[in-house]
Amino acid sequence: MTQIVEMGRMISNEIPLDKCIWAPGGSITQVRIYNLFRVLLYHILPAILIDGVFRLMGQKPFLAKLQRKIYTANVALEYFILNNWDFKNRNFIQLASEIKPEDNKDFYYRDFIEFDVTLYFRNCILGARRYLLKEKDENIPKALVHLRRMKLLDKVCKTIIVAVFLYVLLIQFDLLGMALYLVGYTSSFDLGCK
Question: Of 113, 121, 72, which is closest to residue 93 (Cα–Cα)?
């Protein structure tokens, strides 16, 4: 699954969607608390904030509801996403070597054995752009510019979210002071306080 996510990220950098509302990203982790932390910080919280902006602009909010559906789908698929699946296909591969040369044009199995997964996914994205989303191939350069803007926005928003989170955690709850106290830190200069 990690390979598929990485491949999707790579291909989306080459063939982005015209009207993406955020930069594609994501990764797979088997640490549940880390995953929950990322979902709350990078999915739920931004969706609520952006929905608030939509409300202020008089538009219908939809991101929080969409994120709820995505989270529910991920929970349902968690078992399949987090486990490795090995399918044995020795018989299928052996069948390709047993086909007579004259029958090879009718029963050509090499395409399935020497399959280029990256090319397959690239064609899937192109097909989705053309036939599902009705986007034109000549719009790809413009979509690349839009994707660069979305990536910049993504980095800015994530930086702000992490900064606010750290501020609340370290300053408001004084976890920094508590950590310094626990390690026995003492200041090397006198502030004149006693």
Answer: 113
